[in-house]
């Protein structure tokens, strides 16, 4: 049943739940109403019995006919009446009881019942069986220091409660139907239909996110649904723009990769020819050759970095455990420069699980940038670049620090943006961006931990890679 209900539409659920809740509310109202109806039923008979007894006690010439009074008692289902005062007890009407089949007598004192007793006794009568007699004691409204005992039929009271409950049920049915219909119509118009419209738009947009016609047009509502429509429309427009930009960049990246690949081959050939020019007998040619070779080296590095930047995909990583200290040694050896001291502070017993080739590239780019920054100083003697590593919260933190001049403030904003973060002539701006992409591909991060006049420190964190 739960599964069948879950499969129903939101509108059907709303209508079904509205009817149930209205019936529950009516039932909550019915519980004390039955008790009140029982009390009113007894009170009417207390009043009738007391007034009839006054008529019987009056002067004979003005007294009511006894047979008429008995008929009135019978019409009110009163079988016996007794008037009680402080000093006397007067029997007004004795019940006619068959001595051979006298029913059980139930006693009820309405002057002593509290609210819970009223409810419990009322529903006890409602679910009773048989036709016992009830001797009820109460205080009529017009009696002074007197109480009235009446004997009534339990079946008569039960029939009255049945009729009252039936009327309440029919009224509740009408009210619940009307209320459920109005609530359903209102909520369906204000909530269900707009939500259905949002759902249909999301489904259509998911099928074709680049279709401009699929973007939701807000209805202009100022409530929560209106806010949701505005937010969804803005998100869909942003997603559409991003997808279009991604598609264009993907096509552009594919073209650049092909161009860079061919250009690198051409530059490699040009580099070989520049080596021959360096051996020329012409002094002017030999003088220009170093500049040409330097320019070709930068062009080749740019082509290489451009090609490698597009390959930072986590699914292509080949992770395996290796010694971080040995890897750092290789990086420092490959980036060594005259006058710059390289220090490997990585623990020799620290093993890390990562893609060794990719991590080498990340460290190489960062260390090479640090060395290049210090080489630009007029006197690079005594400057250092160091690599430290330690385990922190189950992750490896690798710090690359130098004693160079640090980064200028304007360079920090675009530091991790490809083709934007270079601060040296001829730089591609890809070194730090590639290192950051490699860290992200491993599930880690790269941050600029410090940059001032005493040097710069980059920190790579690779979570869950320490042993």
Count the beta strands: 12
Termini gap: 52 Å
**Overall body shape:** rod-shaped
Provide the helix percentage: 55-70%
DSSP summary: helix tally:
11
Structure description:
The protein is an alpha+beta fold. The protein has helices at residues 2-7, 10-57, 66-75, 115-126, 154-207, 224-278, 283-309, 324-334, 356-375, 409-412, 431-441, and strands at 78-84, 89-93, 105-109, 133-138, 147-153, 320-323, 340-345, 351-354, 383-392, 395-402, 445-452, 455-463. The longest helix is centred in the middle third of the chain and has 55 residues, at 224-278. The protein starts with a helix and ends with a strand. The relative contact order is 0.06.
Give a brief description.
The chain has 467 residues and is α+β, with helices and mostly antiparallel strands. It is built from 11 helices and 12 strands. The longest helix has 55 residues, at 224-278.
How are the secondary structure elements laid out?
Layout: H1 2-7, H2 10-57, H3 66-75, E1 78-84, E2 89-93, E3 105-109, H4 115-126, E4 133-138, E5 147-153, H5 154-207, H6 224-278, H7 283-309, E6 320-323, H8 324-334, E7 340-345, E8 351-354, H9 356-375, E9 383-392, E10 395-402, H10 409-412, H11 431-441, E11 445-452, E12 455-463
Parallel strand pairs: 3-4, 7-9
Antiparallel strand pairs: 1-2, 1-5, 4-5, 6-8, 9-10, 10-12, 11-12
């Amino acid at each position: 049943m739960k599964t069948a209900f879950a499969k129903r539409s939101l509108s059907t659920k709303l209508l079904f739940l509205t009817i149930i809740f209205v019936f529950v509310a009516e039932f909550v109202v019915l519980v004390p109403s039955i008790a009140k109806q029982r009390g009113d039923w007894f009170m009417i008979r207390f009043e009738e019995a007391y007034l009839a007894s006054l008529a019987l006690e009056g002067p004979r010439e003005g007294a009511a006919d006894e047979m008429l009074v008995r008929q009135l008692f019978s019409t009110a289902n009163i079988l016996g009446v007794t008037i009680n005062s402080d000093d006397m007890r007067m029997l007004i009407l004795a019940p006619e009881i068959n001595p051979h089949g006298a029913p059980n007598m139930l006693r009820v004192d309405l002057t002593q019942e509290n609210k819970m007793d009223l409810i419990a006794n009322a529903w006890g009568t409602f679910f009773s069986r048989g036709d016992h007699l009830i001797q009820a004691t109460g205080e009529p409204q017009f009696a002074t220091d007197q109480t009235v005992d009446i004997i009534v039929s339990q079946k008569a009271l039960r029939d009255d409660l049945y009729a009252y409950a039936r009327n309440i049920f029919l009224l509740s049915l009408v009210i619940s139907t009307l209320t459920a219909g109005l609530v359903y119509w209102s909520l369906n118009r204000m909530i269900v239909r707009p939500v259905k419209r949002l759902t249909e738009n999301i489904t259509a947009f998911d099928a074709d996110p680049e279709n401009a016609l699929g973007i939701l047009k807000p209805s202009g509502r100022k409530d929560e649904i209106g806010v949701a429509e505005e937010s969804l429309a803005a998100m869909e427009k942003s997603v559409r723009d991003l997808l279009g930009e991604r598609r264009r960049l993907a096509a552009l990246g594919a073209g650049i990769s092909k161009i860079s690949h061919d250009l690198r081959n051409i530059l490699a050939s040009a580099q070989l020819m520049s080596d021959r020019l360096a051996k020329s007998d012409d002094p002017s040619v030999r003088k220009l050759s170093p500049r040409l070779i330097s320019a070709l080296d930068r062009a080749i590095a740019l082509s290489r970095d451009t090609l490698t930047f597009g390959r930072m995909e986590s699914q292509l990583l080949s992770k395996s455990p290796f010694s971080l200290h040995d890897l750092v040694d290789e990086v420092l050896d490959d980036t060594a420069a005259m006058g710059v001291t390289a220090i490997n502070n990585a623990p020799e017993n620290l093993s890390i699980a990562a893609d060794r080739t990719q991590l080498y590239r990340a460290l190489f780019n960062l260390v090479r940038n640090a060395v290049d920054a210090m080489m630009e100083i007029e006197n690079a003697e005594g400057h250092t670049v160091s690599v430290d590593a330690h385990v922190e919260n189950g992750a490896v933190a690798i710090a690359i620090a130098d004693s160079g001049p640090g980064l200028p403030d304007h360079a920090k904003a675009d530091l991790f943006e490809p083709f934007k973060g270079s601060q040296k002539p001829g730089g591609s701006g890809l070194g730090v961006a590639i290192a950051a992409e490699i860290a992200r591909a491993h599930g880690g991060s790269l941050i600029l931990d410090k940059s001032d006049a005493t040097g710069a420190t980059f920190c790579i964190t690779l979570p869950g890679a320490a042993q």
